[in-house]
Amino acid sequence: MDSVRFETAEQVRKACRTGQHSAPTSGLAQGFQQGNLVILPAAYADDFLRFCVRNPKPAPILGVSEVGDPKLPSLGADLDIRHDAPRYRIFRNGEPTDTATDIEALWRADFVTFVLGCSFSFETALLRAGIPVRHIEADRNVAMYETNIPTVAAGPFAGPLVVSMRSFSPQDAIRAIILSSHLPQAHGAPVHIGDPAQIGIHDIAKPDFGDAPDIRPGDVPVFWACGVTPQTAIRHARPEIAITHAPGHMLVTDLRAEIA
Known about the structure:
By secondary structure, this protein is an alpha+beta fold. The protein contains six helices and eleven strands.
């Protein structure tokens, strides 16, 4: 479906809800905050909240639901978390077992939803500044990697930091770093610049999540903390069930992602 038609967050959510859109959301509804999803049984919610507080770079909190409530009105008046992301990832006992485009059949009365900030939200600022975003130009999902950087554990939640990577000319890399630093709810400034081996990435052409990157001669790779990080923590915590977004397939909220 042509992404040009998705000018608002509500349009994206409606397209997800009706089954018209199930692809990654980078570049859609520019200027609106996109969010990573983590849905857990309430017994795990307090520990996961502490995990987010202790790891604000990969897990900046945009919203938390009431127990059993699929609505998050502070993020969108019509928002229903069971239908409004393009693709979900289902974990059972810590292992990803399936994906789905709707989770109403899986919904439980004890679920708590966490919506966490996403780096897609600062891409609007880059595009408006005339900075090319390679994966958007190539119509690909962003490349994401597990690193050797540990997160701060909370209860059973622990694991390595996941990063997303965008490559730029050296001049554009400096501008992208400055612009992203103004949006802490979208992961803020990058966590690493340059040699990927220094953070445990041995082959930048083979990401752990997303699509292979489009890196041009002379480009500098820049790495941001990524909201897929909680998915590695879920594998460590091993709840009987957890639901997240599929990497790159974000919830688009009505919150604005603008630099003041």
